[in-house]
Each structure stands twice: as structure tokens, then as C-alpha cells.
Amino acid sequence: MRRSELIAAGAALLGGPDGPALTVRAVCKAAGLTERYFYESFADRDEFVRAVYDDVCARAMATLSSATTARDAVERFVKLMVDDPTLGRVLLLAPAVEPVLTRSGADWMPSFIELLQRKLTRITEPAMQAMVATGLIGALTALFTAYLDGRLNVGREQFIDYCVDLLLNRVSSY
């Protein structure tokens, strides 16, 4: 219970609109817990930051895994990452500014690629599946990052339509 409270507070701080403001003291204050409870669950700040990131990645994977169509996947991902931009910033922006997450982001990327690759059932050749999935994950990551950053001045439906179109058109060309 306390661990989940700390993780939730950490996500709010790591994905805050002004960027990561994550110290042990700040997390404990936000969770309403003492540092003793923090150190019962985590060895140090770095382990904690990785745990917060892993929690958000696991939520994203669960959201995407349960999708039945490309549109469903994009809509679910937008709901999770854009409707709660804190989570989107943790997943997509925090690894660029939080050094401990550089490796964690790289560790999670193959899981997202593999998930998409399994959904590309129209493409039967494994190497082509891997290349298409890798390219699509890269493109979608860049799109969602720009959207969360406010660098794409488009409406929600236009953004979703574009992402779905990207997925469907790339796959249908094989």
C-alpha cells in the first residue's frame, strides 16, 4: 500500500509539467509518508525512479495489449498518456532528462516493438515484421512526444486519425 502511494507520488513529480522534481524528500511529502517508509521499499532514489518508470510502462503495455484494433490501440493510448499527461511525460519525456532512465527506456523498447510485431499478422515474414514494428514505434514515439510537448498544434481527433492512418497504411503496403 505504501509502495503504491510512493509510486503514485513519484509519477506525479517525475511527470510534472515543469519536468522532473524528484527528490526523496519531495516524494515522501507528496505521499504523506516519512523517509523510513521510502527506504523500506527502495534502496535509493535511482531504484525508485526506475520503479516509477516501470510502473508506467507496465500500464502502457497492458493498455495496448488489450486493444483489438489499431484505432482502439491509439485511442486507449491517447486516453492513458494524453488525458493524463503526467503519465505521458513519465513514459516519453522523462528518459531524456532523467539519466537513470536512459537504460530503462532502452530496456522497455523491445517489449513495445514485440507487442506491435505480434499484431502485424498481415506481414508474414519475421524480419519485415520486425522492421515495420520498429519503424512504427519510432514514428509513434516521436508523434506522441511532440503532441505532449505541445509542438503539434492539432486536435485530438486529427491526431488519432493520423496515428491510425500511419499504422494501417504502413501495414497494408505489405
From TrEMBL:
Record field: transmembrane: 127-148
GO molecular function: DNA binding
Keyword DNA-binding in record: yes
DNA-binding region: 23-42
Origin: domain of life: Bacteria
Domain spans labelled HTH tetR-type: 1-60
UniProt keyword Transit peptide, yes or no: no
InterPro entries per UniProt: Homeodomain-like_sf (IPR009057), HTH_TetR (IPR001647)
Keywords linked to the UniProt accession: DNA-binding, Membrane, Transmembrane, Transmembrane helix
Protein known as: Transcriptional regulator, TetR family
